[in-house]
């Protein structure tokens, strides 16, 4: 097998990257101490929030806290992304159903 040298390799092949594994070996996931919540809601449900129909980026009082919102589908829906610090993560999946009762 011929060995090639490059200054930069871009492997845009997903979270389970075969390119990264080929270059650096297998890695286990490491918890960063930050969890994220994502949702798409009807803009009608959040229209009381000032400027919700614009792109919003909010930073909290710690680097782990942030909220990003932006309109979708001709402003009929709003995408919401939020992060918060958390000491541990017990879920065994990249995705988990949630609701307002689970939101810290």
From TrEMBL:
* GO molecular function list: 6-hydroxynicotinate 3-monooxygenase activity; FAD binding
Is the keyword Oxidoreductase assigned to this protein? yes
Provide the alphabetized UniProt keywords. Monooxygenase, Oxidoreductase
Reported EC number(s) for this entry are: 1.14.13.114
Top enzyme category: oxidoreductase
One Pfam family recorded for the sequence: FAD_binding_3
Which InterPro entries does its entry note? FAD-bd, FAD-dep_Monooxygenase_BioMet, FAD/NAD-bd_sf
Please list the residue ranges annotated as the FAD-binding domain. Answer: 7-86
PANTHER family found in the cross-reference section:
MONOOXYGENASE, PUTATIVE (AFU_ORTHOLOGUE AFUA_6G14510)-RELATED
Q: What is this protein called?
A: 6-hydroxynicotinate 3-monooxygenase
> Which organism is this protein's natural source?
Acinetobacter baumannii
Lineage of source species: Bacteria, Pseudomonadati, Pseudomonadota, Gammaproteobacteria, Moraxellales
Q: Which gene encodes it?
A: nicC_2
């Amino acid at each position: 097998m011929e060995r090639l040298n490059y200054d930069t390799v871009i492997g845009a092949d997903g979270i389970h990257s075969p390119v990264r594994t080929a270059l650096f070996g297998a890695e286990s996931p490491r918890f960063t101490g930050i969890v994220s919540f994502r949702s798409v809601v009807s803009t009608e449900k959040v229209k009381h929030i000032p400027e919700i129909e614009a792109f919003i980026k909010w930073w909290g009082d710690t680097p782990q806290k942030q909220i990003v919102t932006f309109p979708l589908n001709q402003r009929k829906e709003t995408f919401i992304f939020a992060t918060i610090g958390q000491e541990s993560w017990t879920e065994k999946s990249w995705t988990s159903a949630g609701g307002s009762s689970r939101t810290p």
